[in-house]
């Protein structure tokens, strides 16, 4: 069984993709070390998320997905950061609108939804950045730089493998027309499911907003882990949400233990930057293997990069992150069971 698992993981893993993503993140962290600018962690976060948002099949789709993510997450981050500085209610309203719109992209398929939901994830993290309360959005420039750096590394400086050829070598204008026609066809195809798509988008927006308000009312540390959990767990049906929440819980526990162990050894920004490299590499490489494995390496990767500016890999912080993940999972499950569950039962 173990041998079969290892063989399956090796077959699905893409180690060079992992190395490239890790290189982009760690180079930016090292620049932050050299310049003594801890906020360069935001550049590394931007590079990391941009790598996650990549569509792997053609050069055009890869570039489009990376640039779309960079634009959406930066613009959305500016919006929610600005509104959160006005009042918590305004911040909650911004999250509700942005996340609901992100949920609607599921109508166009998994790839657009992946870009949109990762952009929404970036926004719910940014809204709890300490600078948000002061209305200071300077870190967004570093974040956008990281997104563009990862894009340039992927598209220009380090192309790991040839992209799949476009069918019939169509001219780019013809390809654009075909893309628009395909999108319209998909939209017509999903018209009958528009009600379910709207319900899912509203459910996602309401649940994420509820998580945001809950952690702020209770003044929970690392509250953005709860809102992230809702975004990444909640699926259109309970049958998809329940196992996803279990997988995330298992992966988060393992990842938290890894983060605590590394945090006990990596005590300086330079040591953290070096420790991040294998973790991000494994996160990206093992993403196709399974969600629990992905989360197990994603958790310590994001913890170490996010805490690069203010290292806080202590037991209490690790426990707070785990508790917030469980809170987010509970909110996602409750939203799936309570908000428009009858429609899905009838559709089945």
What is the compact description of this entry?
With 348 residues, this protein is mostly helical.
Structure write-up:
This protein is mainly alpha-helical. It has one domain. It is built from 16 helices and no strands. The two termini are 34 Å apart.
Topology readout:
Layout: H1 2-12, H2 15-35, H3 41-52, H4 59-86, H5 88-104, H6 110-126, H7 130-134, H8 139-157, H9 172-189, H10 194-217, H11 224-233, H12 238-265, H13 269-285, H14 291-306, H15 315-338, H16 341-347
Helix pairs in contact: 2-3, 2-8, 2-13, 3-4, 3-8, 4-5, 4-6, 4-8, 5-6, 5-10, 6-11, 10-11, 10-15, 11-15, 12-14, 12-15, 13-14
Strand content: under 5%
Number of strands: 0
The helix-strand sequence is: HHHHHHHHHHHHHHHH
Total tally of structural domains: 1
* Secondary structure: helix percent: over 70%
Alpha carbon gyration radius: 20 Å
Which oligomeric form is depicted? single chain
User: What gross morphology would you assign?
Assistant: globular
Q: First CA to last CA: what distance?
A: 34 Å
By secondary-structure content and strand pairing, the structural class works out as mainly alpha
List segments where confidence is low: pLDDT < 50 over at least 5 consecutive residues.
1-13, 162-173, 187-193
* Average pLDDT score: 77
Distinct helical segment count:
16
**Main β-sheet description:** none
Organism: Duganella lactea
Domain Integral membrane bound transporter: 211-334
Transmembrane segments: 67-100, 138-158, 210-234, 254-277, 289-306, 326-343
InterPro entries: Memb_transporter_dom
